[in-house]
Each structure stands twice: as C-alpha cells, then as structure tokens.
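Structure tokens please, single chain.
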Amino acid sequence: MPRPFRAALYGAFARAVDARVDEAAGALSEYPSFGEFFARRLRDGARPVADAAVVAPCDGVIAAAGPIVDGTLVQAKGRTYSVAELVTLPSLAAALAGGAFVTTYLSPRDYHRVHTPVDGSLVGYHYVPGQRWPVSGRFMRHVDRLLAVNERVVIELATAWGPAAIVMVAASGVGNMWLSHVQSDTRVWHATGEPRHVSVSPVELTAGDELGSFLLGSTVVMLLPAGAPPLRALADGDVVQFGQALAGRSEAT
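Here you go.
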C-alpha cells in the first residue's frame, strides 16, 4: 500500500468495522499492507493483562464454551466434533479429556494477535492442512465439523495442570497465520499441503505472552486440561477482550 494512502484507507476501513485504531502501537501510515495492519500490535498499556489463572487469549465473540464431554466439543447448537480430530495428536487429545474449551470468533474489528491464556511453556506448533470454510455463525451452524476440517495450527502448551492447547483456525480469506516463536508463517506449509510439527525448546511463558497472529479475523479454540481451575460462565455471544480474567488465581489450587 503506498504510504500516502495508508492512513486514509485503513482509517476508513476501521470506521466501517468499528476497529479501535487508537490502541495500535504505530501510526496507520506505518503498516505497509492490510495484513500487517490487521496484525498490528497494541500500544503499551492499551490492554492490561489480568492477574488471573486463565485469561482470554484473544479478542472476539464467544461462539461456544463448556466442558469437554467424552472427548467432544460443541461447534454450534446441534453440531459437535471431537478433540482428537481437532488437535490430530492422540496423546494431546487424551490429556485434555474431561477438561474445558472456549471457542472465540474474531471479526475484522478485533485485535488479531493470539496469546497464551495461562502460565506455562510452549512445546510446539503443529500445522494441519485443510479447507478454508468461512467461520461465521451461519457456517458454524450448518457445516459439520467445520473447525476440524479447516486449515489450522495447534499450539501445544505445558502447564502446571497438564497439557493445554490453543488452536488457530484459518478461514476464507485467512490463509496466513504468523507464529511468534518460530519467526515464520504458514504460507510455505500451505503450499506443500503436508502436516508440519515444529518442536520448540521449551519457551517459558506468562499468561498474556504472544503466540501468533492472524492476518484477518478467524477463530481460536482454547483447550484446558481437567486439572485447570473452573472458568467463569461464558454464554454464546459474549464479547471478550484479550487479557480479561476467565478464572481467578484463588480458584487455582
């Protein structure tokens, strides 16, 4: 995007979708492309991270949340899918049995970076090729197992309660996910169409540390093990912001 046009075009887009550009770390003219504008960092102090056992990993609207029952997750009313087919790693799926999940939909208005919701360490990124169905509510209600058939990156975490995961799900128009701790994105992997497993020498993380970013809105699924503290009640349609408390430290015993 030519520099003279950036502020006007990004500003017009932000007004149309009600995006908070005042939270951006840089001036609008500093982002060379729409992708980099979507993946903009927050300015210091724009979003304090709560002192909590579990915080929201991203901005967005709650699409579904609840316990993992018999290895099954709710996609939308009347539609379910399995943890095993979402994460594709049998050992990780087994470790998440009896835990809890939260699915958050990011729209173009939202901050697009994704963070760890808990203290722990990063184990690895697991790329799963797939489709790019839109992830809006209408498609979530009508396409079976949509989140388990779309292209995605499973981010595996080690926590005091056991393995956890953050799943970044691609969608129509969202074919590139940037991964913070490997300084890479998924474009090359997408071109080969093959799964990739990128192990990371354990990186110690504090709740709120960055894991990656979308270059346009999509969906994040947070998966916590059974030993994690209970999450506060979340209803479909609730709006959350990165850093908000989802479970207090007093509940983490």
